Amino acid sequence: MRYLALATDYDGTLATNDRVPEQAVQALERLRRSGRRVILVTGRRLADLLSVCTCTALFDRVVAENGAVVYDPRSREETRLGNPPSKQLIQGLRARGVEPLEIGEVLLATHAPHRAAVQDVIWELGLEAQVIANREAVMVLPAGVNKASGLEYALRELALSRHEVVGVGDAENDHSFLARCECAVAVANAAPSIKRIAAFVTAAENADGVVELIDELITHDLARHQGQLPQNLILLGKRADGTGVQLSPYGHNLLVAGPSGCGKSTLTAGIIERLIDKDYQVCIVDPEGDYGSLRDVAALGNQWRAPSVQESLAILEDPKVNLSINLLGIPLHDRPDFFAQLAPNLQAMRARTGRPHWLVLDEAHHMLPDTWGHAGAVLPLKLHETILITVHPGHVASAILAPVDIVVAIGHSPAQTLGDFARATGRPLAWPADLGEQPEGVVVWQDADQQPPFVMQPEPSRVQRIRHRRKYAQGDLRWHSFYFRGPDEQHNLKAQNLMVFCQIAQGIDEATWLFHLKRGDYARWFRHAIKDEHLASETERIQRRDDLSPWQTRMMVQELVMARYTLPE
């Protein structure tokens, strides 16, 4: 189920002349039986609404006073999201003859002809308040309080995000909350400004338009609009002619593949940034600790502490939190079993809340190898909104690759990478002649659209990342580790990461340190195992200097490493 909640305005949308007609009440009951939530978003004062609306029990939350008050009909608890109206403001408006003047818990409201007087009094008093139009009325609220902020509060109480919500309204003050919904709908009698921001306009007016929307939600889940809402698309990059390559945030699976060190993590980090920018919740399964330093991403687990499935799910309950699950503390051979426990729990959470919106699975060839026979039993039949990252597409379990419909091949051999994927999935690949055998840059194959592969210039991420920062700093490089042996091979000290390298370098004898420095062993390891050209080049400059003492070279190399790879706590 794509949309889990409906947020509807009251007057002019769900209700006419204060009342909700019976056919609309029945439609709301059908919607609730379908498993969806319903939120009422109104400019009315709560007491006024409760006196005229007899069906408030059908709503999971009522957002009243244009976003200033949130009410739970079951517990009858009210939450005020702003300060009460200023007494000076009330006195000033009455002195100006502003009547009628409705006074709510937070809101003040009057008729539209008094708009200029209201603004004048606010200006004279120097108050931080906003004036909002609502058909023939004007409302005064604290700055930052509107229907969108009230809806956000209600959604968070219900553990939903705005991306699971369809909103419907008619008047100018509905603009803010409709703009926050994944899909905005206007009833036929809506103001022109509301129709302009709507994904579509119902054929019928008022409550009949809401019934029309509810019936389509229940029957088709608004499938005709899937991937058609431009404000929700995620930019991947640009084609050679400059046109954008967009990713629909729902219904797709993406594979990012290519040789080690070609930029897969950096490209994926950019996609994650843009998903987060649009409030999509992301869960990253991070075997090597590459993504924990991303902005707005919480990290769980490290090389000393393994994460748990229950901890991960508890953190993801908050729709505002994105999570990187660091698997460095779990032995390599145990990671597929961890994912076997995590995957069905994430799928159950998605069925209940629609989140996490995207799952990112790094090192997929290690996490779910083709030799692992349990993938088909563990994975759900429909795995959607997942990004897989791998060096070898052919080494990933076929059950994982089957739902992939967009492949991004990066590195020096994109034709080979796409060929590996095509052979692993049994799909025909028609390589365009105009691309040549090995085109430069990134090649995208959108198999779902039956398009031939094309070259794309990726959209850059905001922050240039030091590749595999956490893996190199704290992880286990295994066969790429550095060994301090010395001129006579009297030692065999293994540095499996940069932090251990620095610890050994502090205590190793001078002869052993200089032996590896002058041979260029440190620079060679930094360049080929760590894949950090800057660190390697700077180390080479140090090893060529004759004016430095052995102690100074040791300190300078360590300081270079610590400056680039010391991680914030």
- How many beta-strand elements? 25
Low-confidence stretches: 464-468
Termini separation = 39 Å
Task: Find the structural class using helix and strand composition.
Answer: alpha/beta
CATH class of the largest domain: Alpha Beta
- The percentage of residues in β strands lies in 15-25%
CATH topology title of the largest domain: Rossmann fold
* Percent helix range: 25-40%
Give an account of the 3D structure.
- The model is unreliable at 464-468 (pLDDT under 50).
- The chain folds into four domains: 1-76 and 146-232, Rossmann fold (3-Layer(aba) Sandwich), CATH 3.40.50.1000; 82-144, Alpha-Beta Complex (Hypothetical Protein Ta0175, Chain: A, domain 2), CATH 3.90.1070; 233-458, P-loop containing nucleotide triphosphate hydrolases (Rossmann fold), CATH 3.40.50; 476-565, no CATH class.
- The protein contains 21 helices and 25 strands.
- The protein is an alpha/beta fold.
- Helix content is 36%, strand content 19%.
- The longest helix is centred in the middle third of the chain and has 19 residues, at 335-353.
- The chain starts with a strand and ends with a helix.
- It has an eleven-stranded mixed sheet with strand order 14-13-23-22-21-15-20-19-16-18-17.
- Strand 4 and strand 5 form a beta hairpin.
